[in-house]
Design a protein that fits this description.
The structure holds two protein chains of two kinds. By secondary structure, chain A is α/β, with parallel strands linked by helices. Helix content of chain A is about 45%, strand content about 10%. Chain A contains 15 helices and ten strands. Chain B folds into two domains: about 1-65; about 75-270, MetI-like fold (Orthogonal Bundle). Chain B is mainly alpha-helical. Classes of the chains: A alpha/beta, B mainly alpha.
């Protein structure tokens, strides 16, 4: 038994070594020509395995055009600040260019971990609203990959219930009632309200849609948004599972027909397509609040670690420019189903995904960037607590939001940020 | 007489009968409890598409598929991390045993007060949370070029592993009677010979436990792997990324890859984990 196991272990290691040798063999050599011939750029991008081939294709095109080789590494968004802290403080950054979640940028600026790229021109064709916000007047980040939630509708169930997808929150209430009636008194709408980022994104969208400011949290729009949500909840028009709903469980709810209407990120279309189920769902931008449509813009932006200078910086900037260009964006749209920072990148979308991209583009028109304030985690925590207290426990919105506002204000003061924030 | 014995034995018998039934059930239940998550990982990894979606996914797969395993294998990006983790964990274990075993033996033979002082001193180094010191340690490692380097990772893992392995081994060597060494000396065995031919074999179960502990610690270590790795992930990092961003079946297949070497190493080392090795060692 032991000998067998040793043999198995040895065999596994041997096989692994052989596979490593096979997999890590000499790659196609970079062409000797090109303005960056002989250079290597290390690019950090956290992507799903299925998305890597699309990214690799983009990087190969870059290599062909520039002569520089690109090493693709994957550092998760939550790990990047610590990793950069270690390398920047040691004066030895190993990453030349990184893509980072647009919500966790503040820490990179505050810790002085990222280079100022105000001098880098944004290529023509990049949509102005897609350009990341400046920090203290400086551009530290460049646009790369936006993301936005859209709504998924179970076509058959909606047809059976005789309802159309809601376009406003009032229509959502009416549709919720009709779906509930059609399913024998069971709610059929889930909102992503799982603890953490999902609830924060959803609540921010509702508050902005009602004309409020999530950073303030107790203004008229915020209170109205919560009153509306509380009414939906109390009437039983939202599934209780909403409190567990996030990017992956929303897919489960849709596929299992627990939810007949659910907002989620567009990767849902790829998952549904892979299961052969996309045709059973309609994808559209979702509903608007009484004052405006509001879709939190997620996704990644590009940055260069502090200390990357000289030829390395030049190569990183060239790669960033290529990634923002039409050719790269078109490949990423086509191969990975990523929304683009450019309007001219959607020409080659497959017919099955056209509806999704139309929905994404419509949602992006109402896009809203979460403010990169140092106290955002307190705002997010306050919105989450508001969900628990107002929706789950039925507390009246105003007093709860007043108390949470004070907490956010205190956090803002502690961080030295001006508060209340100036209206955008 | 027989009546008295029978009378005394009755309550024990009354208790023994249900115990005879309950004990195997308890053992079976505990075993299932431990094995169930492992079963789930392997089950999901061979589940076809729709079988595991929805709120009440099936617990039995009627039409298993190796599609997701094939994808994971074909992708090939787990093998290099697997090899890196195997190498780092094995070298860390060897270095830890080689460093800690002699030190622990010496400590075990010191006077009690000094021994416990040293042991407490060792454990004090573990009082600081790794997250608090990780960035500082990693920054120093990065300064001397130990990022993306096997040596850096091994040294970082030794920081966490050495105090515990020393603690375990001191206990192991303490339990070995000095009489064994004295008997070996009387038989004419040299000091080194006694250590290699008497003490080390007697300490094998303890060394195996300690080695297993270090191997598993290094295999699963996350913080330093995260901070000191850029181009080539360790397997846990790679698995984390797959779990974070993959489909459920792929997550399960990748998690199973992480489990397999652990199961194998535990199987190998379990033969040394028998209790009672020292029983009768100094019987006259």
């Amino acid at each position: 038994m032991t000998r067998t196991c040793w043999s198995a272990l040895g065999g596994a290691v041997g096989a692994g070594a052989a596979l490593v040798a096979a997999g890590c063999g000499p790659e196609r050599e970079a062409p000797a020509s090109g303005p960056l011939a002989g250079r290597t750029v290390t690019f950090s991008l956290s992507v799903a395995e299925e998305e890597k081939p699309g990214v690799q294709e983009v990087l190969q095109r870059f290599t062909q055009a520039s002569g520089a080789r690109v090493t693709l590494v994957s550092v998760a968004a939550e790990d990047l600040p610590q990793k950069l802290k270690v390398e920047v403080r040691a004066g030895r950054p190993t990453i030349d260019l990184f893509a980072q979640d647009n919500l966790v940028l503040r820490v990179l600026v505050d810790e002085d971990l990222v280079e100022d790229v105000s001098d880098v021109p944004i290529p023509d064709g990049v949509l102005l609203p897609m350009i990341p916000e400046r920090f203290e007047g400086r551009q530290y980040f460049l646009p790369f990959r936006p993301n936005v939630q859209v709504a998924y509708v179970n076509r058959r169930r909606f047809a059976q219930a005789g309802v159309a997808p809601p376009k406003t929150v009032e229509e959502l209430r009416a549709v919720g009632r009709q779906l509930k009636a059609a399913s024998g008194g069971v709610a059929r709408v889930t909102l992503p309200l799982a603890q953490g980022a999902p609830a924060a994104v959803t609540i921010a969208e509702w508050i902005v849609g009602f004309g409020g400011n999530p950073l303030v949290l107790n203004d008229q729009g915020s209170v109205q948004a919560f009153e509306f949500l509380r009414a939906l909840w109390a009437e039983g028009l939202l599934l209780k599972e909403s409190l567990l709903a996030k990017y992956d469980t929303q897919v489960d709810f849709l596929v299992g027909e627990t939810a007949w209407l659910a907002p989620n990120w567009p990767f849902t279309s790829s998952v549904l397509a892979e299961q052969g189920l996309l045709e059973f769902f309609r994808v559209y931008a979702g509903w608007r609040g009484p004052l405006r449509g509001a879709h939190v813009i997620g996704g990644d932006v590009l940055g260069i670690p502090k200390g990357v200078a000289g030829p390395r910086r030049e190569a990183a900037i060239t790669l960033a420019a290529f990634l923002m260009g039409r050719e790269a964006q078109q490949i990423l749209v086509e191969r990975n189903g990523w929304p683009s920072v450019r309007a001219d990148a959607y020409a080659t979308v497959s017919p099955g995904q056209r509806e999704t991209f139309a929905a994404i583009q419509a949602a992006l028109k109402d896009g809203w960037f979460r403010p990169n304030v140092p106290y955002w985690s307190d705002v997010s925590g306050a919105m989450n607590e508001a969900v628990r207290r107002i929706l789950e426990h039925g507390e009246p919105p105003k007093p709860v939001l007043d108390a949470l506002h004070e907490r956010v204000a205190a956090a803002a003061r502690r961080s030295g940020s001006p508060y209340p924030p100036a209206p955008k | 007489m027989s009546r008295t014995v029978g009378h005394r034995g009755a309550p024990r018998d009354r208790l023994a009968r249900p115990l005879r039934i309950l004990f195997p059930l308890w053992v079976l239940g505990s075993t299932l409890l431990v094995l169930f998550p492992i079963y789930l990982v392997f089950m999901v990894s061979v589940a076809p598409g729709i079988a595991i979606f929805g709120e009440r996914p099936a617990l039995l797969v009627t039409h298993p598929t190796l599609r997701f395993w094939m994808r994971v294998i074909a992708r090939g990006d787990l093998w290099a991390p697997l090899l890196k983790s195997l190498t780092v964990a094995s070298l860390t274990t060897m270095a830890a045993v080689a460093t800690a075993a002699p030190a622990a033996y010496v400590i075990a033979r010191l006077p009690a007060r000094l021994r416990y002082g040293l042991l407490i001193g060792l454990l004090v180094t573990r009082m600081f949370p790794e997250f608090a010191i990780g960035v500082s340690v990693a920054t120093r490692f990065a300064r001397v070029g130990l990022v993306d380097d096997y040596l850096g990772l091994i040294l970082a893992h030794l920081i966490g592993a050495l105090p515990f392995i020393a603690w375990i081994l001191v206990g192991t060597f303490e339990a070995i009677p000095r009489e064994l060494e004295e008997a070996a000396a009387i038989d004419g065995t040299s000091r080194l010979g006694t250590l290699l031919r008497v003490i080390v074999p007697a300490a094998t179960p303890g060394i195996a436990v300690a080695a297993l502990f270090v191997w598993l610690y290094s295999w699963n270590e996350f913080l330093y792997a995260r901070l000191l790795t850029t181009s080539q992930n360790t397997l846990p990092l790679q698995v984390f990324q797959a779990i974070d961003r993959g489909t459920k079946q792929q997550m399960a297949a990748v998690a199973a890859v992480l489990l397999l070497p652990i199961l194998c190493v535990v199987s190998v080392l379990q033969r040394y984990l028998r209790p009672g090795t020292l029983a009768g060692a100094v019987k006259g």
